[in-house]
Amino acid sequence: MGWFNYYGLAVMAAIMIPNVVYAVTHKGEAPEAYRNRAAIIAEQIGRYGCFVFMIFNVPYTYFNFWFGCALTVYLSVNGGLCAAYLIFWIACRKQDGKLKALSLSVIPSCIFLFSGIVLANLPLLVCAVVFAVCHILISYKNIGKNSEDKLFKREG
After folding, report:
1. CA-based, 20 to 30 A from 2: which of 10, 71, 86, 144?
2. Measured between alpha carbons, how far is 79 from 6 in angstroms, rounded to an integer?
């Protein structure tokens, strides 16, 4: 694999499907109730870094597959994680709660972390750690906040 990772592009395309559908169907809605500015900025930096480094390999920071049959492992695990992400999204698309919030934040985090490790891609690994910590934190914090908001809307 050279500077361009076609497999990473395919993985990114697959996990972006739910995000695009959500953005189109929920225009103008602001689902985030947790407003820690530092966490949100760090999450976005990690997110876009993961997007870039899943697709583009920067010379001298990317060391390719470091064990035999790594390509098979990379494709199998990422394929399974992408399938799990899409299945959870389809199964939980009309509900809110811990299962949906955590599965849709933990699975992409695992994809990025796993890819960074298997490819020995240092920038991807750093961005994946930042993204995972912040994305899971924000998703978890929004579970309680969104339920509280719904409770107050019903009472008021």
Report:
1. 86
2. 14
